[in-house]
Amino acid sequence: MSHILDIKTGGKSLNEAEKVLIMIHGRGGSAQDILSLSQHLNVEGYALLAPQATNGTWYPFSFIAPTEQNEPWLSSAIDTIGKTVQTALDAGIKAENIYFFGFSQGACLTLEFLARNAQKFGGAVAIIGGVIGEKINRENYKGDFAQTPIFLGTSNPDFHVPVERVYATANILKEMNADVTEKVYANFGHSINQEEIELANSIVFK
Question: Per its UniProt record, what Pfam families does this chain match (predicted)?
């Protein structure tokens, strides 16, 4: 199965905006759900792009399952993010003005895409996520973030995302010259808290 490209939009139109925020929803969520979160972010004047996962999930199993178990959905999902980025580039938006926000499965997908395609982006926020795979395949990750600000927020423990993977992901991103801020909340649960929104605004959406 592969995903059908279905990008929901919000904010300014692409031909009027100077910046774009790509928002990636979690398992069982929707593009409209995550777009509604934008009202809490400092993204007035941004065009908002949110691809919709076919059948509401980007890949069927845990992000730390063997990668082959999540294929071909996973490769198609990564390709969907790439096509969403290309939509912005084709509209004349520079990569350094493209931002990302992902939650849970969407955070994992965002981080996997970014680590595979590192360059100077505007910034990224990933709430409860890490790079994908039973074991981390460092060879997949190439490029230089040129100090792109990336905020990682998570709960410890989290039922879906072990905190060790969040730390390992932060280390990889730092090695690739990202300006990483990580924040771990004890026993917060699988959701987004107000401080994470405030940190996202102060670190990424300045």
Answer: Abhydrolase_2
What distance in Å separates the CA atoms of residue 136 and residue 36, rounded to the nearest whole number?
Answer: 32
Mean pLDDT of the region 32-59: 97
Q: Is 123 helix (H, G, I), strand (E, B) or coil?
A: strand
3-state SS class at 184: strand
Q: How far apart are CA 77 and CA 97, in angstroms?
A: 22
Is the separation of the CB atoms in 111 and 131 below 8 Å? yes
Alpha-carbon gap, residue 48 to 95, rounded angstroms: 15
Global pTM?
Answer: 0.98
Task: Decide if pLDDT at 182 tops 90.
Answer: yes
Pairing of strands 46-51, 7-11: antiparallel
Percent helix, strand and coil across the chain, each to the nearest 5:
35, 20, 40
Contact 107, 151 (CB under 8 A): no
- First-to-last CA distance in the chain? 39
Whether cis (ω within 30° of 0) applies to the bond prior to 157 is yes
Residue 147 contacts by C-beta under 8 Å, 6 or more apart in sequence? 120, 177, 178, 179
